[in-house]
Specification:
With 111 residues, the protein is mainly α. It has 5 helices and 2 strands; from the N terminus they run H-H-H-H-E-E-H. It has a domain of 76 residues: Arc Repressor Mutant, subunit A (Orthogonal Bundle), CATH 1.10.10. The C terminus is likely disordered.
Length: 111
């Protein structure tokens, strides 16, 4: 059985990854299929430098892995269950309150 501290750490890492819309989009793209950084940057419409920073965060959180393929690197979800977790989380949030918007300010009482 996992300890509460381990559970909190795991959820905190997942939350940190989901806290940024670009990282959310990366995870959703990788949920569909592994991808090379150039393809991800093009799909997202961002620079490779900016993408690299987000991929580093997702790697540090343990959610994605870099897989060498010849001279290139391909990114994929660290575990296929993460894709299912993203689907389940999205479905649960929409089922509870589909018309809510979480404001990004502390004075509004969110987060």
């Amino acid at each position: 059985m996992l300890s509460i501290a381990t559970d909190i750490d795991a959820l905190s890492r997942f939350g940190r990854a989901l806290a940024d819309p670009i990282r959310c989009r990366i995870l959703l793209l990788l949920r569909e299929a592994p991808a090379h950084p150039a393809d991800l940057a093009e799909s997202l419409g961002i620079s490779r430098t900016r993408l690299s920073n987000h991929l580093a965060c997702l790697r540090d959180c343990g959610l994605v892995v870099a897989v060498p393929v010849g001279r290139r690197v391909r990114y994929e979800l660290a575990d296929s269950r993460l894709g299912h977790a993203l689907d389940d989380l999205r479905s649960a949030v929409l089922a509870v309150e589909s018309d809510k918007t979480c404001l990004d300010t502390e004075e509004e009482g969110c987060c």
